[in-house]
Request: fold
Amino acid sequence: MSESWHACLLYTFTAGDKTFPAPDGHASGQVLAENQRDAVVNIRTSNEEFYRMYRQSVDDMGALRLPVEGAHGEVFVAAAGLPWFVAPFGRDSLISSLQNIMISPEFARGALDVLGHWQATTRDPWREAEPGKIMHELRYGELAHFHLIRHTPFYGTADATPLYLITLHAAWKATGDRALLETYLPNAEAALRWIDEEGDRDGDMFQEYQKRTEDGYENMDWKDSGDSMTWPDGTLVQGPKAVCELQGYVYDAWRRMAEVFDALNQPGRAAGLREKAAALFRKFNEVFWIEDLGFYAYLLDGDKRLVPTIASNTGHLLWSGIVPPDRAARVVARLMAPEMNTGWGIRTLSSRHGAYNPYSYQNGSVWPHDNSLIALGFKRYGFAADAATIARGISEAASHFESSQLPELYAASAAPNRPFPFNTSVPTFPRHGLPVRRSRCCRPCLGSSRTHQITGSGSIPRCHRGCRTSRCSTSRLGWSISRCGSPVTAITPAVRS
Reply:
């Protein structure tokens, strides 16, 4: 007769004078996964494809929760990915927080605390540190302890600092917790100073970056591979580089922080930031817009020349709101054209570009997190059907991967010759937030804990007959959405004690 037995190994890690005991209890992986599902928003939908992707992503988000010591004790942040990136990353943690803020705002709280704790206060060219700058990557272990690597932490990112401000505002709006603003206001003030004094290297109102040391990172936005910034013929762009989406992030951060200062009864600061945002809006649209292309330049090179490469970064401008409404349709049309739209999502680089390679890291592959921001930008400007098309394509792509688990990026040939997308990477955190972003692109309403209101309008993709949501943030709120004809929707909120 066969028998089974179970053993549990309890362990305690030590690092110098710190000890890390084993977690309390002996919960199985299945129990921990069920606890994670119970702690976040529960979504039920008639679209089984999307439901499987969402459920898998919730499980993966739980698996990638990383306990880190912040300024106010131990908090959870999003580990950047497995297996090489189980560490706090600035950009990744903030984008993941924004993606998950509807279902789990605690990630945003953790990111604000940890990244605020490690915000640079001194200059260190080797680590790209400058006062007020938000870090890129933090590592632990022997190499970091003896400063044999620069990630202690490393600050080689240009976008984490404005994204920190955007996340602070978004977390406040999602939770209604004014204490967040008061707690992290000093960090926000330092970040605003960095944008003015260090991010704008030459005083032309645009954010630029360039590595401070010979072995530093060549590119410091989300497309951080060394070959991701190229002219249309494939030649590498020389810096300093003013990438288009950085300008959008700063514009958005200034406008959001103006609202924060209004809430903190500082109308003078709010007015000043709105004036700066308006000035940036005007100058950016004067300089970056290329009328013949009906599109924005990818970036400015070190000689302030426009780089007319067609890339997905321009879609982030719609998310930031820096595009005038009368130009939005042309931007959307170009992104949805066959050179950019694979049917499985928007590719990072036009198929007509000299450096295009669908199997590359960032020169033609499809990145789910990139598409989530683009789709939200479409929705912001009223292109809900196009946003739903992107969401549907990503959802279909997920169904071709094991357990409906989205990778960091994948290769995809254009329709109709697209038998299936091809996984070219490993699991990372930002893509786990995409299903949440997809639901935000498709759902016709938006909740605010601060105002206790549900507002909005939109349409449900035809692949969804209905959707039910419950348990929003720390409150209990449920509503159901059903298709009652196109594009009419019916919304029934129900508050439960």
Observations:
- The CA atoms of residues 66 and 234 lie 39 Å apart.
- The first strand starts at residue 12 and ends at 15.
- The radius of gyration is 22 Å.
